[in-house]
Design brief:
By secondary structure, the chain is mainly β. It has 2 helices and 9 strands; from the N terminus they run E-E-E-H-E-E-E-E-E-E-H. Helix content is 10%, strand content 37%. Strands 1, 2, 3, 4 and 9 form a 5-stranded antiparallel sheet that branches. Strand 6 and strand 7 form a beta hairpin.
Length: 153
């Protein structure tokens, strides 16, 4: 079975009901089924929907951005960091490559900085309101673009 290209609108909220992100007011988001472009728990629901369907979806951490992994939190000497001014909550990319990890400053203790490389939504349930706008067979170009050569699935 060939993957479909899905166009959908979404609103993402946290457990307190605060809106974290939305596609409303913009073009619908597009993705190729099975490409890993969106979290697994949301994609599984979108796969079962038909254009025009709307659903509320709760995605647990295991099917979203994962559980918070304490191994992704470590102390590093402040002198090793690529930024001069730091405060708790700051985020920065650890290298020039666009795939370099993004870390958050979780704490500052003298000359040491506690960095957290977990996704900001790791460990959280994700509350989506989704509308599948359109679904069609994905083109070869869309499939190739969603899974570049050399990238593991």
């Amino acid at each position: 079975m060939n993957p479909r290209f899905l166009n959908f609108h979404y609103i993402l909220r946290d457990a307190q009901g605060r809106m974290l992100d939305t596609s409303r007011g913009n073009e619908p988001l597009g993705c190729v089924e099975g490409s890993g472009q969106i979290v697994d728990g949301l994609e599984a629901v979108l796969r079962s929907m038909q254009p025009g369907d709307t659903r509320k979806v709760v995605v647990p951490p295991e099917r979203g951005y994962g559980l918070h992994d304490q191994a992704q939190v470590q102390k590093v000497p402040r002198a090793h960091l690529p930024v001069a001014e730091l405060k708790v909550g700051d985020r920065f990319q650890t290298g020039p490559d666009r795939h370099a990890p993004v870390v958050m400053v979780a704490g500052i203790e003298g000359d040491e900085v506690l960095l957290d490389a977990n996704h900001p939504l790791a460990g959280q349930h994700l509350y989506f309101e989704v509308e599948l706008v359109a679904a069609r067979p994905a083109t070869l170009e869309e499939c190739a673009a969603s899974n570049p050569v050399g990238v593991d699935e």
